[in-house]
Structures are given as structure tokens and as C-alpha cells.
Amino acid sequence: MTGTTDKTGTEEYFSISDLAAQLEISPSTIRFYEDKGLISPKRTAGNQRVYTRKDRARLKLIIRGKRFGASLDEIAEMIGKAGSGMDEKKQIEISLAHIEAKFDEIEDHRRELSLLEQDLKNLKALLKKRLKELR
Q: Are residues 69 and 119 in the same domain?
């Protein structure tokens, strides 16, 4: 069902398997995101899920958020639940706040790693000195 259009020819639909293949994720992952309320696919008369371009775009945002280390709750906050009608301005403001928090977190990790590196260098020097003394 790759890119099937509706009867009016105005809306493009995708099956779960086509969408999963396009985005390189599993169908169960897509169903999981649906269960979490992040996407809301339409259903055929036979109760089969069909996904729109909007669903695909939301899935891409979810995948990008996961890649950047955001939790599903954070992603839901940034993009809104499916059908919530969150406006773009609000979406951008919330996303920027999360990005700033992530930058702060990275900087904290960077400082911690720098301290750890210095501690290890000091310990290494101390151990080498002691080994030399024991020889």
C-alpha cells in the first residue's frame, strides 16, 4: 500500500508495514506509539490501520526525539498528543525548553568527565611513581 491515495485522490495513505519499512522501525513500535497516544491512525472498514502523511511526519519527529535522548513523555510534551491540536508556536517553545535542558545536561556530563579524566591521570601518575619505587 505504498502511498495509496484515497478515492478523491487528495490524501495519501500508508499501511503499517510500508510505514515501518520507510522509517526503518518495526510495526510493533508504531503500534506502541499509537498506544501511547502519539499517533492516531485511521481505520479501514475492516479495522486495518492506515496512516497519513501527518502520521508519518509525527513518527519522524518521535524517532528524531528518541535519537536525541528524549523520553516518550518529553516527546509527547513537545509534539502534543495525537489530535491535541497543539499550535506550532507552543510546540516550538516547549521544544526549545527541552533542548536547553539537554544542553545543560550535556555540559554537566562534560564537567564530570573532565574531573574523572583528571582524577585518572593523577592516579595513573601516582601508581607509576609507586611502581618505580618498588622496582
A: no
DSSP output for the chain: -TTEE-TTS--EEB-HHHHHHHHT--HHHHHHHHHTTS---EE-TT--EEB-HHHHHHHHHHHHHHHTT--HHHHHHHH-STT----HHHHHHHHHHHHHHHHHHHHHHHHHHHHHHHHHHHHHHHHHHHHHHH-
Q: Are residues 9 and 63 in the same domain?
A: yes
Q: What is the pTM of this model?
A: 0.68
Per-residue pLDDT of the chain (135 residues; tens, 9 = 90+): 455 555 555 678 999 999 999 999 999 999 999 999 899 999 888 989 999 998 999 999 999 989 888 889 889 888 877 667 777 888 888 889 988 998 999 999 999 999 999 999 999 999 999 999 998
